[in-house]
Structures are given as C-alpha cells and as structure tokens.
Amino acid sequence: MVVEDILYKWQNDLLDVVTSSYKIQVDRGGSYLDFTTDSKFGDITSNIAFKLSKELKKRSLDVANELAKVLAPFMDTERFRYLDGVKVAGNGYLNFYIADGFYVELLEEIYRKDGSFGQSNIGKGERVNIEFVSANPTGPLTVAHGRQAAVGDTLARIIKFVGYDVTREFYLNDCGNQVNNLGKSIYTKYSELFGKTYPFPEEGYHGEYIGDIAKDIKDSEGDKYINIPNEDAVTKFSNIGVETILGCIKKDLTDFRVTFDNYYSQNTLEKSGKVEEVVEYLKQVNLIYEKEKAFWLKTTAFGDQQDRVLIKSDRTYTYRTPDIAYHKDKFERGFKQVIDLWGPDHHAHVGTMQSALKMLGCDNRGNFTVLIVQHCRLLRGGEEVKMSKRAATYVTLRELLDEVGCDAARYFFAMRKTDSHLDFDIDVAKKQSMENPVYYIQYAYARISSIFRKGREDGLIEEGIKPPPAFGAEEITLARELLKFPYIVRSAAENLDTERMTRYLYQLAWTLQSYYQKGDKDKQLRVLCEDEKIRSMRLYTIRAVQIVIKNGLELLGINAPERMEQQIS
C-alpha cells in the first residue's frame, strides 16, 4: 500500500464503477473524494452524485442511492478491501467507511518511511524557480519581508517534498536611484563626522544603521573620502552600503532558517546587455511605440489594463524594463514554473508582467504565478507597533526575531493565506501556553518524547515496539488524522498555501491532547497503562503521531524539541 496514492486509487476505482454502470465518460481530472469533517458520517465523502445528476437528468439524492446499491457488491472485492461500507447522506453525498485493518498498514508505512512519510513525486523533477523577499539592499529587512521569507521558504520546502527541483532566488536591486540615495545618505553622515556638510537627499534613508555604516568607514578609512569629488565618494559609499546591508540581510535570513540558492544581481543583468536585447526585440516585433517622448509597451493587447512606459523621456528605463528581462532570463535558464512572491504595492505589476511574458513567448502554459503577500500588522497589548529605533520608520525582522524567536515568527507568518492581512500578536507569540499555537504543537511532540522516557525509566517499554494486530477506537481517531497528512502536503503544494499545513498540525496536536485528556480522567485509558498489549498499541500510535508532527514542522522550518519545561493547562 502506498498511502500517498490511496485516495486517488479509490477515486479511480469509484469512477471505473460509475463509467461501466452508466456507460458515460467522467472527467478523471476532477476531485470527487475528500475527508469527512466528522467521523460519525464516515471517513471519506464523495460528491460524485452531484456531478452526475445534470448529465443523468436525475436528482443528486436519487443518483446517490442508485450508486450506493451499485457499489455494495464491490465492497467485498480486492480493489475495495480497505473500505468497510458506503452510506448516503444529505442531498446526495456518498460517505465511505474505512476498514479498521487499514490503519494497521497505515502506521506500518509511517514507521517504514519515517522522515519521508508524506513525500511524493508528483513534480517528477520539473524545475521550479521561486523568488521571494528580494528586498532592496538599502535597509534592514522589515516584518513584511519576514512574512515573505517564511512563506516563500515554506513553499519551497513543500514543493521540493512533492518531487519538484526547486531553486530559491533573491533578486538584488543593486543599482539605480535607490542605491544612489543610499550612498548619499551615508556620505552625509560621514561628512558630519568631520564637521563637513553634504545635503541629505530628499528620498534618503534614516535610521541608526546609516550612521553606523558611516562610522565604520571613518574608523577603517579615516578622512580618505572627504577631499575627493562628491560624485566619486557617493559611488564608493553606495557600493559599501549595499555590501554591508546585504551582509546583514543574509545574516538575518540565516538566523530565520532561510537560505537562497541564488542572489541574482540587477546590476549584472544590465551590464550583460540582456535588457537592451529585450527592448530591441519588442521594437522589432512592433510592440513598442513612442508617445510624449517616452516609449510604451503594448501590454493592453495581451490583457493588461493599460499600456506601460518602458523608457522614460530622459531615455532611462523604468523599473519594469529590467524586471521583464530578468523574468525572461528565468525561463531561458530552463525553469518550467516561475513563482514570485510580491508585496501588495506591486499588485498592478502582475498584469503587466504576465502580458510582457506572453509577448516574449514565455508564459504560454500559464507557468508564471504571482502570490501577493498582504500587509502584516504587529500588535502588542492590543495596540499596533509601528516604530523602530534601528530603522526609524518600521520594525525590523531582526527586532521581531530577538523578541519572539524564529519558531514562533515562522509559524505566525505562515498561518494565514497570503491574500489575507495578518495581525501578528507579539504577546501571544511569546506565551508558553495553549494560546500560542506553535508552542502547542511543539509541546505535543515533546510530550510524546517525555512519555517514552518515563516508560523506559519505569521498565514499561521494550526496544522495538511491534505493530499491534488492531487498534482501539481512540487510536483510530488519531490514525484518521495521520492519513490526511500526505494529502495536506500535496494540497499545500498545488495551491501554494502554507496555511493548510499550520492548520493541520494544530488540529493533529489538538486531537492528541484530547486523547491524553481521556487518560487524565481514567487511568486505564492512559498511554502507560498496566495492560502490556494495550500499552504497546498506544505507544505505537503516538510514536506515529510524533513522526508526522516532526515532518510537518520540518516543512514549516520549525524545530521539534525533545523537551519542553512548561506544561499546557
């Protein structure tokens, strides 16, 4: 049995029966099976009757009743041997019950696969480029960058887990006006250290880090740059500033357990001539026209809301021009899927990029996807936290990590869909109680380790727990949750949705806590009970739960601690 495929096998078996019985064709790419929300209504539910009712010109309930009768004889055959019956519910749902013996094999597979349980090969090695964070190297990472980092890295882990060849990429905007203003800002502070004045740029950068960089230059180079032309000094300080800030960005990302396979430099891109090549090609195919002394791209012809300026009247590029060349280069490097995570201020750029890639023949299969990562609001004591001493205008990722830690930050950033605004409650993230969801999940893992340690100390656990011949009702409740894990992973990958994983792990931890609570009320229901066979069965079950929790936390980039001091009340 391969658990990762069992639901799809059952669906195909169901469709085989339907097509042979009704002599009709059914779309096999559709989704017809799902897990029930309440086990008293079965384990698996199907909407197939609703899909067939229109074609058969019958009520969905009548179709469901017919199908239940048709399927009944098949329940005793080999292909349906893991199913224990089917019932009709509601207006036409078919609810299937999984045979108890299935769960013995399920847990055996979890033990056998261990850290690879939930892994699959649906990607078949297809190359995927996922670009995220891509912060300008002009200041520390913000909390908004932190959310992109956590979501992007988690998605990369999940996508890789289901068989794709994933490259994590950071686009480095290391040239242009912003970098020039960075150099001017640092030079202003540097000049002040020698009693000189240099006008601070109107769009300059504030915050302690500017003064720190200036002081470092003074300490290492002295007054070397005071008497050279201002333009040369600004260029030098721009380079130093980018190098210094990028180093800090990389350090923050490393501490956040985020690594990139490639830092792609815009400066290098522009020097390579690839931007000019794209512009010349678009001119040759008559997709650029001149208006008001600027050059416009005919993006409306390819679905954008309006045409966009590529070259301004002063003959400099707009920000979108090198960006288009950069994305073209991604496809030229052989990536079959390109995924970008952008902030909400780039929403209008999505249509432009999609149109430009179609012009360049790079998005013919819909293989370019943009996730807009919405705003994140920090709360402390119910009030929004806005200011930062370090960056002057925003709270940095480093400040947040220092206060709540990496595990809490990664979980909280990942626990909402990217298109939803996120309220990050710092007070909750710091708590060691069931109010803090990541602590709750980690404690579930650590408590299992604690039970095994106590069992060994008391001589109640032998090495190599053997699989039981059957499970009790409470253990099957836990096993039902474990069965969902491979499908949660696959669904999270297909929908690019980290929330599914955080929600699943919390539900699994809650189910485990409910399991324990029954033992708190009745000693005979405790894991380390007196009956050796029952004790072994329960230990075998919770160890499987621990494997799945660890695999899920690993995909989220969160630690699975063996010990935690505080207990959940």
Task: Give the tags.
flat; Rossmann fold; 569 residues; 19 helices; four-stranded antiparallel beta sheet; Gyrase A, domain 2; 15 strands; alpha/beta; 50% helix
Notes on the protein architecture:
The protein is of the alpha/beta class. It folds into 4 domains: 3-98, 2-Layer Sandwich (Gyrase A, domain 2), CATH 3.30.1360; 132-258 and 377-430, 3-Layer(aba) Sandwich (Rossmann fold), CATH 3.40.50.620; 272-373, 3-Layer(aba) Sandwich (Rossmann fold), CATH 3.40.50.620; 437-556, Isoleucyl-tRNA Synthetase, Domain 1 (Orthogonal Bundle). The chain is 50% helix and 12% strand. It is built from 19 helices and 15 strands. A 5-stranded parallel beta sheet has the order 7-6-5-11-12, sandwiched between helices. Strands 1-2-4-3 form a 4-stranded antiparallel beta sheet. Strand 3 and strand 4 (93-98) form a beta hairpin. Helix 6 (177-192) crosses helix 8 and helix 10 (274-284) packs across helix 11 (320-332). The longest helix has 26 residues, at 230-255. The model has no long low-confidence stretch (mean pLDDT 93).
**Radius of gyration over all CA atoms, rounded:** 29 Å
Given the structure, what is the number of helices? 19
Largest sheet: 5 strands, parallel
CATH H-level homologous superfamily name of the largest domain: HUPs
CATH topology of the largest domain: Rossmann fold
Going by CATH, the architecture of the largest domain would be 3-Layer(aba) Sandwich
Give the percentage of residues in beta strands.
5-15%
Q: Main sheet: which strands, in order across?
A: 7-6-5-11-12
Query: Could you list the spans in which at least 5 consecutive residues all have pLDDT below 50?
Result: none
